[in-house]
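Could someone model heme C with this protein?
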Amino acid sequence: MFFLIVLLVVLSFLFAACKKDVDKSVPTPTNNTPQEQDLSNIPYQPTFTNIDRPANFPIMDIPEDNPLTQEGIELGRRLFFDPILSANNKMACTGCHFPSSSFTDDLAVSTGIDNKAGTRSSMALFNTGYYTKGLFWDGRTASLEAQALEPVEDPIELNHDWSAVVEDLKTTSPYPNLFRQAFGIDNTKEITKELAAKAIAQFERTIISADSKYDRVVRGEEFFEDEEFNGWFMFFDVGGDLPDAECAHCHNAPLFTVNDYFNNGIDSVADLTSFKDLGLGAVTNRVFDNGKFRAPTLRNIALTAPYMHDGRFQTLEEVIDHYNEGIHYIDNVDPLLLQPNGLGLSEQNKKDLLAFLHTLTDTSFVNNPAFQSPF
Ligand code: HEC
Ligand code: HEC
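Reply:
Sure, complex below.
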């Protein structure tokens, strides 16, 4: 009898030990994990990683308090594609930022949850880690971390509230494990919106587009066709017999944006207070900034029609016509755009410029498996 009791005790210890091992390696695979769950048994071994800097690109500033890790990037990717962030559980970030459209949505202005139309066009999401002078068309948000907090509570976008999202993340597998692996938290109760935003920002920093024909020409791997080369001349005001198109002043290589704010003369208004969308002016409260918007990148521009902050132009041909002959005068229109007779581009010049813009398309980026939905 004594022997039997000893055997039972030993066995139950063994069983307990086994069970503990199982808990350690496979933490709760169900969808109903408790709100407070100890995660300290799950290994925290972050794999720190760097952005592979394209040769012709600047160095990206990564915030010290959000270094890139494989685990953080993976969590961010999942959050980006997961409708768990929205009120009706139907819309994710990707709802307005499709990878196949260079992370825009092909609409003039985005439509959010419940099909509510917004007032601005979705923006392409690549190389955003390099944008250090504010995000959005009007620069109202300083960092990707801060930006990622906004869509969830925007009534037109995801129309949810972060406290509810965080509760869902705490109780939905595999998020507790992923937050542990990315940020070393010890308990699900340490999951916060700030950590979620950090992970999304990490993922966004990895979305880099630097393999267009233009890049391959710069690296000496390919050559421009004649039309493209003529377009390149005009885009960068190289001179010669071809007219200057002035584009690079605001959309300069290698990012094809100087990341600054300008009025590019698209609105016909009576005075500086009459813009329908005040743009930068609404952020700085300076009348002279009204109607200024961030000059966006022209990389992958052939993939992101329609164009401008409100999607008013359907095609790149229309955009070129605007710069060539359609600038509307008002006091803060950039002087570069105010040539007495427009840019003076002939029909052939316009075609050449368009051919150059097409060399900025990077299909490898669009199809990169690392940027697709993990679901
Ligand atoms: C309903 C559509 C919609 C959804 C959903 C949405 N976005 Fe956007 N996104 C936009 C629009 C529109 C803009 C431009 C807004 C503006 O300038 O006011 C934008 C701009 C951005 C920018 C700025 C890019 C730049 O170059 O400045 C980032 C980054 C971004 N979104 C990330 C996200 C993330 C992350 C999510 C999910 C948490 C998300 N978006 C969800 C429509 C959407
Ligand atoms: C003085 C600065 C400036 C110059 C010069 C300039 N742009 Fe722009 N560009 C901007 C600004 C600012 C915007 C965004 C305006 C808005 O949406 O209200 C813009 C927007 C665009 C867009 C739309 C981008 C998108 O994602 O919707 C295209 C395409 C474009 N520019 C092409 C060109 C070309 C081609 C040239 C040369 C012919 C040129 N730009 C010259 C400042 C400039």
